[in-house]
Amino acid sequence: MKVLHQDRFKGEIKMQVEVADDLWHLYNILSPGDLVYASTYRREETKSDKIRAERGEKKRMTLGIRLEKIEFGEFDNRLRLLGVIEEGQQDVGAHHTLLMEEGEVLSVIKSQWKPSQLERVRRAVEDSKKPSVIFVSLDDDEATVAVMRQFGVQRLADIVAGGHGKMYATKEEGDYYGEIIAKIKQAYSLGVPIIVLGPGFAKETLLAKGKEKEPEMFSRSFLYHTGQSGMTGIQELMKRGMGAEVLKDSRVAEETEMVEKLLEEVGKDGLATYGPKEVREAVKVGAVELLLILDSMVREKDVESLMRSVEDSRGRVTVVSEMHEGGKKLESLGGMAALLRYHI
Prior knowledge:
Elements: E1 2-7, E2 12-16, H1 21-29, E3 35-46, E4 54-73, E5 78-87, E6 95-100, E7 105-109, H2 115-127, E8 133-138, E9 142-149, E10 152-160, H3 173-187, E11 194-198, H4 202-213, E12 221-225, H5 230-240, H6 244-247, H7 251-267, E13 272-274, H8 276-284, E14 288-294, H9 303-312, E15 316-320, H10 325-332, E16 336-340
Parallel strand pairs: 8-11, 11-12, 14-15
Antiparallel strand pairs: 1-2, 2-7, 3-4, 3-7, 4-5, 5-6, 8-9, 9-10, 13-16, 14-16
Helix pairs in contact: 1-2, 3-4, 7-10
């Protein structure tokens, strides 16, 4: 994310979406009631002698909409902002949807920016500078290609090896690995590390073929053994903390590590508590060292003051994405948990 302009008196921040991860940050920054300006397309109605106005061509224009609903498209890398046109050259009062994607610029005006929203803007600027990671999790029969986003690990493709059983047409041995390499190439950008993982020896074969066919692309490749392949193998690798030299700058890895540490403390009845009621009680007595909270809960009314109370007592707050495995585990604990300074 790039911040192009900021007017504190007006409550306006103008931002540019640089990478797909920025859309997830925007989803958590925007709220119903915000006034959002962006360039968009809208059909121009043309007047004629007919009773009904004829539909004209779509024209590019800048509109300001009062936001009513935000929809995040995880798989099509788009953010849909639905609301009522408040400012623009036509159709004031009508509903319109702004589509945000990479490269788009928007201005957001809020009556009051919450500290957590300003922190999210700062984090989005920092996160856009961090590299993503490509995962290839495979065995002899199937491979999954996924990419690490700041909101979680996104599955890109599943490739099935041919030649297994009567119902499959026979393929040459190299086709399976060639297809995997082709899928990796579609997601790859310069300098992005590739983690190859899985059980058995298929991962070694892929790595050898990759270095032979695409030496530059596989110049930053890492090999890890896991008990399972697919998305399960990727989550296994992240939970074990392996690949720290690659994953250390990833927000997802950082959040997953914190959740796993929390679960470890819960498992041994250590310095941890979970659930909204229990966490609030711990915050009241100043016992919270680290508060973990789902990003979807930050929008709730009293959560902002809860986070501020933790920080006032010299504790730390980490907002965890609900889109990855660590976030789902935190959600199962009530969406809110804490590591404590002492037992209460």
